[in-house]
Amino acid sequence: MVTIAATAEDLDWRGEFRNPAREALFRRTMRAHDACQLRHALVVAAGLFLAFGLTDYSLLGSSHDFWLLLAMRISVTLMLLLLALAVRYRPALAQAPLPVNLACLLAISGLLLTVPLRPDGIWISLASLVAASMSLYLFIPNRVPWMLAGNAYLIGGLLVAMRLWAPLPGGVLANSLLLLGFVNLLCWMTVTRLHRLQRAQFASLADARSVNRRLAAELEERSTLERRLRHMARTDELTGITNRRRFFELAEQSRREANRDGTPLSLCMVDIDHFKTINDRHGHAVGDMALRVVAARCQSMLRDSDHMGRYGGEEFVIALPQACSITAGGIAERIREAVSRQPLEINGMILTLSVTLGISCVEPGEGSLDPGLLRADRALYAGKARGRNCVVTTPRSLAAGRSSGSAPAPMPGRAAAIGAAAAPAGAPVGGRLPRHP
Ligand SMILES: Nc1nc2c(ncn2[C@@H]2O[C@H](COP(=O)(O)OP(=O)(O)OP(=O)(O)O)[C@@H](O)[C@H]2O)c(=O)[nH]1
After folding, report:
1. Pocket-forming residues, ligand 1, beta carbon under 6 Å
2. How far is the CA of 291 from the centre of ligand 1 (A)?
3. Pairwise CA distance, residues 203 & 88, whole Å
4. What mean pLDDT comes out for the span 86-108?
5. InterPro entries from the xrefs (predicted)?
6. Which atom of ligand 1 lies closest to the CA of 273?
7. Of the four, 82, 136, 277, 319, which is 20 to 30 A from 226 by CA?
8. Highest mean pLDDT: which of 54-58, 112-116, 272-276?
9. Residue 196: which of 33, 2, 21, 18 has the closest Cα?
10. C-alpha distances in angstroms, 5 versus 18, 27, 178?
């Protein structure tokens, strides 16, 4: 939700929001402030009201009227303090018209009562009523109509009290009423201005918060997008496994670690057999499904520390850290079995899948993965030539020959067999446990 800072059109003649929901929200946010202000106003008013008992005494002495006035002052003071206490425990009372207006009524009535009980102190009563009139506007968190009503009662009550018990000359009375009228006008303008300013500030704050929320949401959206893009940049869309670029980053890191720690690192090339036939007979959609299934079955045989990527087309590549060629041969054999064990059933068709795997071990001192990949690829081609659905491991002598700088054994091509032996099914795994045996 986007809010817009309060404009003159948003506020009514009382300086309140025209929108009731917005006004209610504003008042809720002001509740603690209003309660605190009312509490202080009540305590100060109660103290002052009681303190004026001294003036009563100086005017009346220890007379019957003085004791009456004192009793009235004590009652009003107690009621005001009681409301202050109630507001402390229930701040919502500060914004409830009934208790606040009752307190005002009580305090004004008490002040008016001083006129008949102490007619000689009419000037003190007048001054007190002017101060009370200002306080009604400035310190009592009431709405403007209630402030006006309270002041109307105050002026009306003063007129009646003076007419009955302390008549003043016409000019003085007119002056007093003019003074009270001026005070009312000034305070009304001040309080309306204050209301407007408070609401404008509230609206600007709400705007800033809304902008902040939008920015936070945008940031979250961007970082989600960034995460998704990063994932896409590293993942093969069709199979969901690591793509070729990411595979090389991970495998290269493993090669450096293996070189540094003197641990073995094996590479395994995996190629689906007769994949072209699957595509040609059943269509590319079925071919894609087969690719996904083979990728998932291969991955299920690996540990978290192994890296598998799509090399291209129907070919996958696996890096097996901490695995010598014998161990890698065992893992490859299990992958071969996992792929061919269970035929794939798609749309009522039974598809027999198999893969051929070529293994090589990265030799110490090799500065990149390329020689190892080339050997694994040649082993794979040898497996294809041998009839497919098998594992071929590059013999140690061939790899050693390459790493020592001697000329590589001639590789006539895919149809030619490499001098490597297919690992027999169920060959010993050599101290390494796959994730899913
Ligand atoms: N459905 C599908 N087919 C693909 C994809 N990428 C490559 N291919 C197909 O994979 C086939 C690879 O065929 P070949 O390289 O001849 O290999 P093959 O038929 O598996 O034969 P061998 O490897 O010798 O067993 C080609 O027909 C490609 O069009 C792909 O993402 N989806």
Report:
1. 238, 271-277, 279, 284, 287-288, 291, 313-314, 384, 388
2. 10
3. 28
4. 92
5. Diguanylate_Cyclase (IPR050469), GGDEF_dom (IPR000160), Nucleotide_cyclase (IPR029787), Rev_trsase/Diguanyl_cyclase (IPR043128)
6. 25
7. 319
8. 272-276
9. 18
10. 13, 17, 38
DSSP reduced 3-state for 313: coil
For residue 276, how far is its CA from the centre of ligand 1 (angstroms)?
5
Q: Which fold has domain 244-403?
A: Alpha-Beta Plaits (3.30.70)
Write the ipTM. 0.94
Span from the CA of 384 to the centroid of ligand 1 (angstroms): 14
Looking at the DSSP assignment, which residues form a beta bridge with residue 318?
268, 308
Residue of 238, 270, 274, 275 best suited for mutating to test ligand 1, as the one with most atoms within 8 Å of CB: 275
What single-letter amino acid sits at 236?
A: D
For 107-112, the CB contacts below 8 A with 24+ separation are 107/45, 107/49, 107/76, 107/80, 107/132, 108/132, 108/150, 108/153, 108/154, 108/157, 109/157, 110/49, 110/72, 110/73, 110/76, 111/49, 111/154, 112/154, 112/157, 112/158, 112/161
- What pLDDT digit, counting tens, does each position of 344-371 carry? 888 788 899 999 999 999 998 888 999 9
Q: Where are the domains of the chain?
A: 8-212, 244-403
Atom of ligand 1 nearest to the CA of 277: 19
pLDDT-derived band at 8, boundaries 50, 70, 90: low
> How many other CB atoms are found less than 10 A from the CB of residue 150?
22
Residue pointed to by tokens 């008949």 = 116
Residue 49 to residues 56, 78, 111, Cα–Cα distance (Å): 11, 11, 8
Q: DSSP readout, 108-141?
A: HHHHHHHHHH-GGGHHHHHHHHHHHHHHHHHTS-
Length of the chain as a residue count? 437
Q: What is the pLDDT of residue 414?
A: 33
Cα separation of 153 and 170, whole Å?
21
Query: What is the structure's pLDDT at 398?
Result: 57
* 3-class SS shares of the chain: helix, strand, coil, % to 5: 65, 10, 25
Expressed in angstroms and rounded, the spacing between residue 314 Cα and the centre of ligand 1 is: 5
For the full predicted model, state whether its pTM sits above 0.80: no
Q: Which of 237, 289, 314 to mutate to test the pocket of ligand 1 (most atoms within 8 A of CB)?
A: 314
CB atoms within 10 A of CB 113: 18
CA–centroid distance, 20 to ligand 1, in Å, is 69
CA angle 344, 295, 340 (to 5 degrees): 40
